């Protein structure tokens, strides 16, 4: 992965975390890793654990960021989220949210938050 792409992802994750915190979420972990992959953010929304996938794009050339989350990626995200919940020993409700962010080289970012976007 190129440095520019890594920087775009980190900027998107920071914006997503700030957005969620402004809504009252508590960020518990960033970049939770497992052999199967990584969850961008793990947060709490009240009594609910929220596993967050952040999708960022710098332009519309390849479509909107959320369109990159195809069925195969959703299935992997659901498996990974289940593993995270198990590893954390979480006993309460949980869900998977997606935060999509357009980060144009000039201009303001556009953020869309999709609660419960992917089923476990």
Please tell me about this protein's structure:
32% of the residues lie in helices and 38% in strands. With 120 residues, the protein is an alpha+beta fold. It has one domain (3-118): 3-Layer(aba) Sandwich (Trna Endonuclease, Chain: A, domain 1), CATH 3.40.1350. The chain has a five-stranded mixed beta sheet, sandwiched between helices. β3, α2 and β4 form a beta-alpha-beta unit. The model has no long low-confidence stretch (mean pLDDT 91).
Question: What are the SSEs and their pairings?
Answer:
Layout: H1 3-22, E1 26-34, E2 37-45, E3 48-57, H2 71-88, E4 94-102, E5 110-118
Parallel strand pairs: 3-4
Antiparallel strand pairs: 1-2, 2-3, 4-5
Q: What is this structure, in a nutshell?
A:
The protein is an alpha+beta fold. The chain is built from two helices and five strands, in the order αβββαββ.
């Amino acid at each position: 992965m190129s440095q520019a792409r890594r920087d775009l992802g980190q900027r998107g994750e920071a914006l997503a975390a700030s957005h969620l915190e402004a809504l009252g979420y508590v960020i518990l972990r960033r970049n939770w890793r497992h052999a199967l992959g990584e969850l961008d953010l793990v947060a709490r929304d009240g009594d609910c654990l929220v596993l967050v996938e952040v999708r960022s794009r710098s332009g519309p050339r390849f479509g909107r960021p959320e369109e990159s989350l195809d069925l195969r990626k959703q299935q992997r995200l659901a498996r990974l989220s289940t593993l995270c919940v198990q590893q954390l020993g979480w006993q309460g409700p949980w869900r998977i949210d997606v935060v999509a962010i357009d980060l144009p080289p000039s201009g303001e970012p556009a953020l869309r938050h999709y609660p419960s976007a992917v089923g476990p």
